[in-house]
Design brief:
573 residues, alpha/beta, TIM Barrel, Rossmann fold, Archaeosine Trna-guanine Transglycosylase, Chain: A, domain 4, 3 domains, six-stranded mixed sheet, five-stranded parallel sheet, 27 strands, globular
């Protein structure tokens, strides 16, 4: 058996599974194949050891059904802990993993979330993971999101035997359907009965998995999951437990640059990339040096915010005040919380969309209050100005010494005039008149947010060339990196990689060779823990920088994998 991961979206992945010359794309259904329930043609089959054939995915039988006659001489691809199977003594040695105690996981969501953490941590993370009994069509998106690659057809068969008509949103009673809401061959045949129902259920599961694979490929599986979980309390509680109690697991696998997304539910507040954003603010962020006045402003529908008409008016008022160089604009928004102006290009700040009703719910209000309170208490501004709209009431309620210039209508001419006048008459002056210095400090803030403290060194003695948002970071005549509006991050050159690698951070250790193209996992000896998929990394051998590029795998995968692209190389030595 051979399994290769070809695409990733968080814990979910699209894989290529090869069994005895047959190739299958995962996530996929492994169909039970018996005389009573024949598997579809050319499908991945799940069979007992005593009737396995070439190309089948083998499952060990139960202890009480195993017979003598050579069964124990066969080597299964899958040896689950299935009703006391004698082949399940060491499930971690199996080629394909399956969680223990499926019935307990169905009844206890916390055990399910803990099992996901256990199976997606350690030396077995590259093995395909099979989910038994749970894989109804409306659950496949979430189960794939949790890292499962294979699903047996048992729940599809059980539903058919019990008269369950499966859809992507749940189970309907077959005998109460006057018109079948499906045009698959089974539903269009005019025939009824368990055989036709089973064919429909198989088709529904296959179609849903096509949707899942497409969502993974587009980096939008989380959106599909948030849509599907609404139909099943079991799914909602499992997703919430993964988000709340296993944040670090999800964050390690979430890319630092992903696809645009809609944040339209309570669960969106706890997306791993959004939680990472808030934690990075708290751990890495410091306001640009020289800024002394905080202006809190609302978000806009258009991203980046600076391109919206409302923010252009805000910025015009700030410029006309003569205090722009010392003003720090920070956007208050849900579900991210806060977006400092200089970070508005960084994912996901320019890549999310939310429904706008003018009403903030309790969770959104608490989030805004906590983050604004943190910002004001840690960044030591000389003056705080609240120029907010719908967020005004909850935010102002936790501020003590501040000026409100919006009266709840930040875009009105009167509010903009008050903002300009308040800034102009503040009596706070810049310590430096060099506009160039402010741009450098803004970029320093970006580099520190992206790379941590070591990122700040990229801007030491640096000059900036270009026009925002496409800025070259130079030291003398040497380019260290470039900020681009499309990526929203600093892309490093070899010289920039040397700065980052000087502390051993964001580094991939390789054997003694110089990459001529992309770096594959077989040549990787180690990778620093802070690396996330999409990060710029230095490719080094014993401190010598050999290449720079973008991480395609997590550091754990780079170290364990024997195949697959680990770093998409941009420059080589």
């Amino acid at each position: 058996m051979r399994f290769e991961i070809v695409e990733r979206d968080g814990l979910a992945r699209i894989g290529r599974l090869e069994l005895d010359g047959s190739k299958f794309t995962t996530p996929s259904i492994a169909f039970v194949d018996t005389e009573r329930f024949a598997s579809p043609e050319n499908s991945l089959k799940l069979t007992s050891l005593d009737r396995g054939k070439t190309g089948d995915l083998l499952m060990a039988p139960s202890a009480f059904s195993a017979e003598d006659g050579g069964v124990a001489k066969l080597t299964p691809h899958l040896t689950p802990d299935h009703r006391g199977s004698p082949y399940a003594d060491d499930p971690e040695e199996a080629d394909i993993l399956t969680p223990k105690g499926t019935s307990a996981l169905l009844l206890d969501s916390r055990k399910f979330a803990d099992a996901v953490e256990s199976m997606k941590t350690g030396g077995n993370i590259l093995k395909p993971l099979l989910c038994s009994v749970m894989g109804l069509p409306h659950r496949l998106a979430f189960l794939s999101y949790s890292g499962f690659d294979l699903f047996d057809s048992l729940p599809l068969i059980m539903a058919s035997e019990n008269g369950g008509y499966l859809t992507s949103t749940g189970v309907l009673p077959y005998d109460r359907l006057k018109d079948l809401p499906c045009s698959c061959p089974a539903c269009s045949s005019g025939k009824t009965g368990k055989d036709q129902l089973l064919k429909h259920n198989y088709t529904t599961a296959e179609i849903e998995l096509r949707m899942v694979r497409h969502a993974i490929s587009e980096g939008k599986l989380r959106e599909l999951v948030e849509n599907r979980v609404r139909t099943d309390p079991w799914l909602v509680q499992n997703l919430r437990l993964l988000d709340i109690e296993h944040q670090e697991l999800q964050e390690r696998h979430a890319p630092v640059k992903g696809a645009p997304f809609h944040a339209g539910s309570k669960e969106s507040l706890n997306r791993p990339e959004i939680l990472r954003w808030r934690k990075r603010l708290e751990k890495r962020y410091a306001r640009p040096a020289g800024t002394r006045i905080l202006v809190l402003i609302p978000c806009s529908a258009r991203k980046p915010y600076s391109f919206s008409k409302s923010h252009m008016r805000f910025r015009q008022a700030i410029q006309q005040s003569g205090k722009a160089e010392i003003v720090h604009e920070v956007i208050v928004t849900s579900p991210i919380g806060l977006v400092p102006r200089e970070l508005e290009l960084f994912y996901p700040a320019q890549d999310y969309d939310i429904p706008v009703t003018g009403h903030w719910d309790r969770d959104e209000k608490v989030l805004a209050q906590e983050m604004v309170s943190w910002l004001v208490s840690t960044q030591n501004y000389d003056l705080v100005i609240s120029h907010l709209g719908d967020e005004r009431e909850p935010v102002n309620s936790i501020l003590e010494d501040f000026v409100d210039t919006s009266s709840g209508n930040p875009g009105s001419p009167d509010s903009l005039e008050r903002l300009e006048k308040t800034l102009r008459e503040s009596g706070i002056e810049a310590t430096s008149s060099r506009e160039k210095s402010r741009f450098t400090e803004d970029l320093r803030s970006i580099c520190r947010f992206q790379f941590g403290d070591i990122g700040s060194k990229l801007c030491d003695d640096a000059s900036l060339w270009g026009r925002w948002p496409n800025i070259k970071l130079m030291r003398g005549n040497t380019q260290l990196g470039m900020l681009t509006g499309e990526r929203g991050m600093v892309s490093l050159t070899l010289e920039g990689a040397k700065v980052i690698a000087s502390d051993g951070e964001y580094s991939v250790e390789i054997e003694d060779f110089s990459p001529k193209g992309n770096l594959f996992a077989v040549g990787v000896e180690g990778a620093s823990d802070e690396i996330r998929i999409g990060d710029d990394v230095a490719v080094v051998h014993k401190g010598d920088v050999r290449a720079v590029g973008v991480a395609i795998m997590t550091p754990e995968e780079m170290t364990l994998a024997e195949r697959g692209e680990a770093v998409h190389v941009r420059h080589t030595r």
